[in-house]
Amino acid sequence: MFFKKTDIFFETFKAIAENITRAAEDFSAEIHNPSSDKRGLTNLQNYEKTGDRYTHTIIKELNKTFVTPLEREDIMNLAVKLDDILDGIEATMIRMDIYDIKDMNIFIKRNTEIILEQCQEVEKSIGKLVTKRFLEIRTHAVRINELENEADHLFNNSLRELVASCNDAIQFIKYKQIYEMLEEVTDACEDVANILESILMRNS
């Protein structure tokens, strides 16, 4: 399928957002119902490779397009931050595999649910960007930020519980790092929301 130059960026962003949501769905499903054959990890690695191809498409088109549909800096920042979400999800899954995390506790499960909902909101907001319904982006950006605030509280509570109950130093380090990595993914989603709001301000 061929797109006009102005469409390439929007269509690629749409594909990136859809890929991220699918990855977040598989990530949450794997955490709630772990597979025994590492299928979930393999799937996430495939999503990450697909995401990298989309990001490279954005960069390649940006380098050869004189007039872009949005500010060049906004396009680049959005592409990079969307990629950060996917990279963070994959990195967390890899680290959990390396650490052989078996206890998918309430903090880990709820974090993956938050990440999934954030990614769904990111996909919706990108849909509004593609159709140039800029003012409607704000609703989704606000929800992403609300979810990030919930993730902050969850992170603090998870650390508090870890300090109070974990007497094994190695297990403490493992879970602390997993909690931190999950928090970084929610932060990356918030970064995307902030970029989208700046695009909204410049185009409304």
Give structural notes.
InterPro entries: PhoU-like_sf, Put_Phosphate_transp_reg, UPF0111_domain. It comes from Desulforamulus reducens (strain ATCC BAA-1160 / DSM 100696 / MI-1) (Desulfotomaculum reducens). Belongs to the UPF0111 family. This is DUF47 domain-containing protein. Pfam families: PhoU_div (PF01865). With 204 residues, the protein is mainly α. It has a single domain (5-203), classed as Methane Monooxygenase Hydroxylase, Chain G, domain 1. It is built from six helices and no strands. It has helices at residues 5-32, 39-64, 72-98, 106-130, 137-165, 169-203. α1 (5-32) packs antiparallel against α2 (39-64) and α4 packs parallel to α6 (169-203).
CATH architecture name: Up-down Bundle
CATH H-tier superfamily: Phosphate transport system protein phou homolog 2, domain 2
- Major sheet attributes: none
Number of distinct beta strands: 0
Residues in β-strands, percent: under 5%
- CATH fold call: Methane Monooxygenase Hydroxylase, Chain G, domain 1
How far is it from the N-terminal to the C-terminal residue, by CA? Answer: 30 Å
Detail the poorly predicted runs.
none
What helical percentage do the residues reach?
A: over 70%
Number of helices: 6
Structural class: mainly alpha
The whole-angstrom Rg is: 18 Å
SSE string, helices as H and strands as E: HHHHHH
| Arithmetic mean pLDDT | 93
| Principal-axis shape | globular
Please write the CATH class name: Mainly Alpha
The total domain count is: 1
